[in-house]
Design goal:
Number of strands: 19
Low-confidence stretches: 1-42
Strand order of the largest sheet: 9-7-5-2-10-1-11-15-18-19
Mean pLDDT: 85
Largest sheet: 10 strands, mixed
Radius of gyration: 24 Å
Number of helices: 14
Strand content: 15-25%
Distance between the termini: 41 Å
Shape: globular
Length: about 475
């Protein structure tokens, strides 16, 4: 069933793309060769000729790259590309996935459940709040996959599907669920709520969607996979969605299809690398791609990390750069910082470069998407948390695992000038205020990673490709 769906949905176009690219390159090479062919023979003049030809090749390559970028700025992205959160979630991953999905054949969720909340807008500006369905669902040509690393609450999933279809977005034949994914039941949600109640003043701050208890059932080998016979109530409706997605992904990769991986939550909520125990129950970092979809590490190409221009967090746990004053309230108001899944107000603060650098080290990002830069407009001063000083007064060399230390660090800030202009309509990097460019470039220099994409508003088109 899965192979038939793939072949029906997609028409391979990579050969045509390669041939067209080759033609353009040959044409450009011919023009450059004619302009620099000096027909010189020997000696110093010949060496100079070779140098000129070499320089011309560099110019030629640059010209080709610029021409292709102007035609499609996302063209150079790899066959398998991942978009992951770098902070504590809510960075705006769904928007970039929605934009990139127009260029990819498959969009896949690799972990988590309906505790994710990805807000996207269609071309008419209509808002969609997704929780488990991948953000590529608005691209009619993309096949969306929920991988084996995710956990699935069927009543919630069908509610999400019904909401999409009532708004004209078809899911039938366009959404597949791994036959290795585990089912999340109502009792998992009840257990989640009871555990939070037992913790009283030490709440983890979960969404109470039952994600943790479901993963607990999985790792204690008591979970139930999405085999139809085990869930009679939904068996008839769920059957068309279930597929061997591991085989499907490898078949798609082998035939040249482009695969976009969408992470839920974010690295600082990773059960291994996050601020444990104030974390989610899966691996939203790079390792979760392989275990959650069955994709081999060597097949993964570009890794794009998504980070807000400031920092937010929902739920409990240490948060060094949190602003508990009017400045934090202003960020929350300007950024509309309320949870997509729970509606809870998000805690807001300055951009934490220590945590962000740690996240980049774990994931090996090739580029970053800095979102909500427009929210910082109007501030006279913007602060970057560039280092932590420990309780002993010494600078910490890395992000600490010990929460007692993390809760008591002193953040060392670097102040940058703000800008007053509204940048929500800006679409070219060079048109941003100089202070905004300085902010972006300072983040790049501290991380050593380019910021290729900058979000300046919620809409699909409010994106600067740098």
């Amino acid at each position: 069933m899965a192979s038939a769906l793939i072949s029906d949905l997609f028409v391979p176009n990579l050969n045509g793309f390669s041939q067209e690219k080759k033609k353009r390159q040959q044409g450009l090479r011919s023009g450059f060769a004619h302009s620099v062919n000096l027909h010189l023979a020997k000696g110093p003049i010949a060496r100079q000729s070779r140098r000129i030809k070499c320089n011309a090749s560099v110019v030629e390559a640059d010209a080709i790259a610029e021409a292709e970028k102007a035609e499609d700025p996302f063209r150079s992205l790899s066959q398998v590309c991942a978009v992951l959160g770098t902070q504590w979630g809510d960075e705006g991953k769904g928007k970039l996935v929605d934009v990139l999905a127009q260029r990819y054949d498959i969009v896949a969720r690799c972990q988590g459940g309906a505790n994710a909340g990805h807000t996207i807008y269609n071309s008419e500006g209509k808002k969609f709040a997704l929780h488990l369905v991948p953000s590529g669902i608005l691209n009619e040509k993309a096949l969306c996959v929920i991988g084996n690393g995710a956990v699935v609450h069927l009543p919630g999933l069908f509610e999400e599907i019904d909401g999409l279809e009532s708004n004209g977005v078809s899911c039938q034949g366009r959404l597949l669920i791994s036959d290795r994914a585990h089912l999340l039941f109502d009792f998992h949600q009840a257990i989640d709520g009871m555990r939070e109640a037992e913790l009283a003043g030490s709440l983890v701050g979960t969404t109470k969607r039952g994600i943790g208890p479901c993963y607990a059932s999985k790792v204690t080998r008591n979970g139930i996979r999405t085999e139809v016979e085990h869930y009679k109530r939904f068996s008839e409706r769920i059957e068309p969605y279930i597929a061997d997605t591991v085989h499907l992904m490898h078949d798609a990769f082998s035939s040249g299809k482009k695969i976009l991986v969408e992470g839920g939550q974010a690295t600082m909520l990773d059960v291994d690398f996050g601020t444990y125990p104030f974390v989610t129950s899966s691996n939203p970092s790079a390792g979760g791609i392989c275990t959650g979809l069955g994709i081999a590490p060597r097949h993964i190409g570009d890794m794009i990390g998504v980070a807000k221009a400031y920092t937010t967090r929902v739920g409990s746990g240490p948060y060094p750069t949190e602003l508990l004053d009017e400045a934090g309230e202003n960020l929350r108001s300007a950024g509309h910082e309320y949870g997509t899944t729970t509606g809870r107000p998000r805690r807001c603060g300055w951009l934490d470069m220590v945590a962000l650098k740690y996240s980049c080290q774990i994931n090996g990002f090739s580029a970053l998407n800095l979102t909500k830069l427009d929210v910082l407009s109007g501030l006279s001063r913007i602060r970057l948390g560039v280092a932590y000083k420990g309780p002993d007064g010494n600078l910490l060399k890395s992000f600490p695992a010990d929460l007692d230390i993390l809760q008591n660090v002193e953040v060392i800030y670097e102040d940058l000038p703000g800008w007053q202009a509204d940048i929500s309509s800006v679409r070219r990097y060079q048109d941003l205020p100089s202070a905004a460019c300085l902010y972006v470039e300072r983040i790049e220099s501290l991380l050593g990673i380019p910021i290729d994409y900058i979000g300046v508003g919620p809409g699909r088109d409010a994106l600067i490709v740098k």
